[in-house]
Amino acid sequence: MDFAQKLSETVALLERIAAEYSPAVFANSFGAEDMVITHLLAKHQVAVKIFSLDTGRLPAETYTLMQEVAVAYPTHPIQVYFPNTAAVEAYVNEKGINAFYESVELRKSCCHIRKIEPLQRALAGQKAWITGLRREQSPTRTDLGYQEFDAGNGLEKFNPLIEWTEKEVWAYIRENNVPYNKLHDQHVPSIGCAPCTRPIAMGEDIRAGRWWWENPENKECGLHVKTAAVSILK
Questions:
Q1: Pick the catalytic residue: 40, 200, 221, 229?
Q2: How far is the C-alpha of 145 from the C-alpha of 154, rounded, in Å?
């Protein structure tokens, strides 16, 4: 499939989601893929709302981009969800400010407080959510499809860029002057919370800089747990 056809099918899928699964939302974490989808939603005036999760520990570059996006895409404002203050305070006071480095269990607990619980609030009352996941991003994502039923959240989940390559993502960004996170220029292809993200070396997997102290098989925060979804379109 050439890129022009792939792009056309991506737009068609976004429009179908808006038409058949309203209300639907797009989860934007301000990575390159998410910026492509944000641009497509705005350019084609697709009636899908956008939200983002502010964990409280995002890099400065992400906040800068967040403001740029608000100016660039006024028709699609981003609703920001924050973690529960009491839960964050309890975790930090009981476990430590950077306890997530100590074990997978503590890291996942931090992710649950800062990401999963806010995500559940963002998805409440929705029929579908859209992500920027791509199959080549990670070993944990190789069997994802375009559409899945997210049993954990009880709604449909769509991955419109699942077949896109990294080269195609960046070609679209450059050709359409799409704003992007400047951490990408510092060899950070996958961006999350500041203390859990580092640049990668040449030849490393594109998600090697996320939770780099853990095994690749563990490198998910829980937002995209495959066991909670059944793929229906490959």
A1: 221
A2: 17
